[in-house]
Amino acid sequence: MAKQSKRYREAAARIDRNTNYDASEAFELLKSLPAPKFDETVEVAIRLGIDPRKTDQLVRGAVSLPKGLGKTVKVVVFAEGDKAEAAKAAGADEVGSDELAAKIQGGWMDFDIVIASPDMMKHVGKLGKVLGPQGKMPSPKSGTVTPNVAQAVEEFKAGKVEFRTDAGGNVHAPLGKRSFPTEDLVANFQAFLGHLSGMRPSAVKGTFVRRVSVSTTMGPGAFIEYGG
Predict the structure, then answer these.
(1) SS (H, E, C) 130-164
(2) Strand partners, 48
(3) Which neighbouring-strand residues pair with 21?
């Protein structure tokens, strides 16, 4: 643990917290910092000018990142019949209905994304207390409750990411791996920020995107200059 904290301190000393870097500069800086022995995920954190206590200001959605995430995403699907077969063919890791709900209710959580056909919400609805706190509850807003489960599987396997505001009015999302070329991280970042900026709720007054920072899994954050 001491080694980690020393590495973190060294990294933090090389980031100017009073500077807003341009995106390329920020990712180059993150990639140049002392690294742990694994390929860290690069993440973005965005502070929004919303009141998270008001439901009409909350933001939730999903966006496809053009350069993918650089990791295998485990997807489970609630579907039956032809839709179940199509989901399996599209690469779903597990497909089922009531028996899949029972397995998850029993504590199995070895997956990243849950997709459900609308007629399966009778099973999925019972899992709110299990999936909700993990941010894995399917929703039409994020494209995870859909009649076309096979297409959703393909999109999330290819690098589509879900996001939602937390209790502090922030949004967090992965952008790829530290080993990605800088231009790929920039492309994913621009796709994410562009999509999010277009989701401004009508009830929000003033600045919507207040602060943007990027970091690696174990590293400090760098602020990014953005267009407001």
Answers:
(1) HHHHHCCCCCHHHCCECCCHHHHHHHHHHCEEEEE
(2) 209
(3) 224
Instruction: Give me the residues paired with residue 41 across strands.
Output: 177
Tens digits of residue pLDDT in 158-207: 999 999 999 999 999 999 999 999 999 999 999 999 999 999 999 999 99
By the 8 A CB rule, do 137 and 128 touch?
yes
Whole-angstrom Cα distance, residue 138 to residue 62? Answer: 11
The whole-angstrom separation of Cα 32 and Cα 147 is 44
Place of tokens 């009778």: 122
Instruction: Check residue 14 and report its DSSP letter.
Output: T
pLDDT in tens, 19-43: 999 999 999 999 999 888 999 999 9
- The total of other beta-carbon atoms located within 10 Å of residue 147's CB is 11
Beta strands 75-78 and 113-116 are parallel
How confident is the model at residue 86, as a pLDDT? 97
Quick: pLDDT tens for 57-83. 999 999 999 999 998 899 999 999 999
8 Å CB contact between 60 and 139: yes
Contact 57, 201 (CB under 8 A): yes
Tell me how far apart the alpha carbons of residues 179 and 190 are, in angstroms, rounded to a whole number. Answer: 18
Q: What strands, in cross-sheet order, belong to the sheet with 41-48?
A: 170-177, 41-48, 209-216, 222-223
pTM equals 0.85
Burial 2-24 (b: 16+ CB within 10 A, else e): eeeeebbeebeeebeeeeebebe
